[in-house]
Design brief:
This is Ferredoxin--NADP reductase. It is found in: Cellular thylakoid membrane. The structure is a single chain. This protein is of the alpha/beta class. The longest helix has 72 residues. A six-stranded antiparallel β-sheet has the order 4-3-8-1-2-5. The chain has two domains: 182 residues, Rossmann fold, CATH 3.40.50.80; 116 residues, Translation factors (Elongation Factor Tu (Ef-tu), domain 3, Beta Barrel). The chain starts with a helix and ends with a strand.
């Protein structure tokens, strides 16, 4: 039996143990409580971190919603921009089938000259010839389409003993050739002549071509070029601005449009309007005039022919009549055609004609309330403005 004194003493002896246990429990609870608080604190920043993401997304998406505002001016652009989306598709579709570089400078085709004759009448200035080459022996066959060019490599060597470089010439015949058998190609070549130190200098390749004779062999490359091709549409309108031998591609177009035999051979029946502006120094320098007059007589509703003969005609100011003067005279009718998305404009000739044409177009456009500096790039982008000058 334990005495009361021993029981009391035993109880007191256990007090430190109880205190220790209580302290352990309290410490553990505090630690867990602190851990919970710390976890709560760390969770709050994570919750906030979600908010910035939403804000960031809204900021980056905002410009997308506002994008139409920046693009609006494009939709409010002049109506002349409308063809830009349609015309290029048509042009690209045609270009895919155009032959290019069948023969290259390192491996040219040697074509035989069939004919070479002058295109000028008595009293004309200079020398301009029509030259035709036989292609039937070419393998692969040298085929081409209207508006392309071929390269000519003149015989002989330059002053350094190297072969002459090739020159490009616009093709003046249709794909079926002048005799419609599909085996020839023709060029319209003016002999280049200029004065230097009191001496007359003749162009190397142009003189070579004007001098060659039937039966001669000539190195030919190509064909090349997609800038001057006709559109596929039969009801397209074709405006042609040419000076001198710039008539070459225009002759090909017009033969394709109006030569009866040519029309029978192809499946393209021109139903639009063709308008040729032709510039020459004298009447005797007008090229292919008999054919053009015949087309005019036979197709009065589809063909219009306007001539500018600088040394025989005067403009409204009393000066020489140039092609740009004719453009100004016909400004209203011309731009009525240009505003039609089916109209294509072709410019070919000496590079010096471009500034005059550009100035005339600017003035003509102003009379219609149009800005030519804005309209021309639109026509170019739409595949309706075609230029080949040299």
């Amino acid at each position: 039996m334990y005495s009361q004194a021993k029981v009391i003493a035993g109880g007191l002896a256990h007090i430190p143990v109880v205190i220790a246990v209580f302290y352990f429990i309290l410490t553990t609870f505090n630690k867990r409580a602190l851990k919970f608080v710390e976890e709560a604190k760390t969770k709050k920043p994570e919750a906030k971190a979600v908010e910035p993401k939403k804000v960031t997304v809204s900021k980056t998406e905002a410009p997308k919603k506002e994008a139409p505002k920046t693009e609006a001016p494009k939709t409010e652009a002049p109506k002349t921009e409308a063809p830009k989306t349609e015309a290029p598709k048509v042009v690209k579709k045609k270009h895919a089938d155009v032959p290019v570089n069948i023969y290259r400078p390192k491996t040219p085709y040697e074509g035989t000259v069939i004919e070479n004759y002058s295109l000028l009448k008595e009293g004309a200035i200079g020398r301009v010839n029509h030259i035709t080459f036989d292609l039937k022996d070419s393998d692969p066959f040298l085929n081409y389409v209207e508006g392309q060019s071929i390269g000519i490599m003149p015989a002989g060597e330059d002053a350094n003993g190297k072969p002459h470089k090739l020159r490009l010439y616009s093709i003046a015949s249709t794909r079926h050739g002048d005799d419609f058998n599909g085996n020839t190609v023709s060029l319209c070549v003016r002999q280049l002549q200029y004065e230097k130190d009191g001496e007359t200098i003749n162009g190397v390749c142009s003189t070579y071509l004007c001098d060659i004779k039937p039966g001669d062999k000539v190195k030919i490359t190509g064909p090349v070029g997609k800038e001057m091709l006709l559109p596929d549409e039969e009801d397209a309108n074709i405006v042609m601005l040419a000076t001198g031998t710039g008539i070459a591609p225009m002759r090909a177009y017009l033969r394709r449009m109006f030569e009866p035999t040519e029309k029978e051979k192809n499946k393209w029946n021109f139903k639009g309007k063709a308008w040729l502006f032709m510039g020459a120094p004298k009447s005797a320098n007008l090229l292919y005039e008999e054919d053009l007059q015949r087309y005019l007589t036979d197709n009065p509703d589809n063909f219009k022919y306007t001539k500018a003969i600088s040394r025989e005609q005067q403009n409204t100011k009393g000066g020489r009549m140039y092609i740009q003067d004719r453009v100004l005279e016909s400004a209203n009718e011309l731009f009525n055609m240009i505003e039609d998305e089916k109209t294509h404009i072709y410019l070919c000739g000496l590079k010096g004609m471009e500034p005059g044409i550009d100035e005339a177009m600017t003035k003509a456009a102003e009379e219609k309330g149009l800005n030519w500096s804005e309209l021309r790039p639109q026509l170019k982008k739409a595949g309706r403005w075609h230029v080949e000058t040299y």
